Amino acid sequence: MRFKNRLDLNLLVALDHLLHLRSVSAAAGRMNVTQSAMSSALQRLRDYFEDELLVKIGRKMELTPRAEALKDSVRDLLVRIEWTVASTSEFDPAQSDRRFTILASDYTLAVLAPALLARCERTAPDVRFNFLNQVAAPDRLLEQGSVDLLIIPNEFCSKHHPSETVLEEGFCAVVWSKGRYANGKLSRKEFSSAPHVVMQPSEGRQSIESLFMAQRGIERRIDVITYNFCSMPGLVAGTNRIATVHRRLAREAQRTLPIKLVELPFQLPTMKQSAQWHGYRSNDAGLIWLRKMIAAAAKELG
After folding, report:
1. N or C end of the chain: smaller count of CB under 10 Å?
2. Using CA atoms, how far apart are residues 92 and 207, in angstroms rounded to an integer?
3. How far is it, in rounded angstroms, from Cα 110 to Cα 255?
4. What are the CB-based long-range contacts (under 8 Å, 24+) for 132-135?
5. C-alpha span between 119 and 121 (Å, rounded)
6. Are the C-beta atoms of 91 and 100 separated by less than 8 Å?
């Protein structure tokens, strides 16, 4: 595909790699061309846009303001072209070796993914999966084409892309089975004054149960912060700490850990776990199949 004034699709691909990698040699390696060829492409791009695009500051290459403005637009354009060309109305799971990249929390990996993989194994033995950890702006990964699907709480879904609820989950308190809070009901005062284990995905972000509590003015004394959900029950065992955990995950942990599940002294909303995909890919037959598999696997969980 060739555009006006000597700009073609290959140059746009080179521009995309240059803007995201900020390195001529790395962009050359990504496109499997020589560094000289990539340097030539960069010069043509500079001539076309009448801007340096990449400038050396110290030992690093930095983007000019014009390049920063182009970065997301170029990636979005290329992703749309790629998905339009690659999109097919046919997908045979029994014959496909397609790799699906899914962004999901460790809760999803522990609770939903095993049922999904077991179900897919029976009908699509060669289909592959690449699970990625949650990040601060998951919708950007969709727009960049880095992931096929997000599995995240509905509250964290982007309003710019379609989504569907696949699983609903409640919460409970997890305490040490021989600890202070293992007998009887947990009062609101005890909950607020007790030391807590909480999950924080990354700096400045909240997990869904923390968001629910913050919205309702529920305070906790945070004693331990961890980066994944599955570690929370183990960090409670042997202490008088409390963790607010997804109920299915807590039940699974109870099989191997000396913990007890206790009802929360207040009502939290049910978490609605949703699958989200890019709007450009709503007709992707492979993703339609995958979404059906996820829904069926979630239904098995009850």
Report:
1. C
2. 37
3. 14
4. 132/101, 132/102, 132/103, 132/104, 133/103, 133/105, 133/106, 134/103, 134/104, 134/105, 134/201, 135/103, 135/202
5. 5
6. no
Q: Which positions ≥6 away from 146 have C-beta within 8 Å?
A: 101
Quick: pLDDT tens for 49-84.
889 998 988 888 899 989 888 888 888 777 777 766
> Alpha helices of the chain — where are they, by DSSP H?
9-21, 24-31, 35-49, 65-86, 106-111, 113-123, 138-144, 188-193, 208-215, 232-236, 247-254, 285-301
Sequential DSSP letters for 134-155: --S-HHHHHHHTS-SEEEEEGG
- State the amino acid at position 273 in one-letter form: Q
State the Cα–Cα distance between residues 167 and 155, nearest whole angstrom: 13
- Side-chain half-sphere CA neighbours of 92 within 13 A: 2
**Residue for token digits 């950890």?**
133
Distance CA 75, CA 77 (A): 5
- Residue 83, classed as helix, strand or coil, is helix
**Amino acid occupying residue 288:** I
**Which residues lie below 8 Å from residue 68, measured CB to CB, with a gap of 6+?**
none
Nearest-angstrom CA–CA distance, 89 and 112: 27
Q: For residue range 105-125, list pLDDT tens digits in order.
A: 999 999 999 999 999 999 999
- β-pairing verdict for 60-63 and 54-57: antiparallel
d(CA 110, CA 167): 14
DSSP state of 84: H
- Amino acid present at 131: F
The whole-model pTM stands at 0.75
- DSSP 8-class letter at 101: E
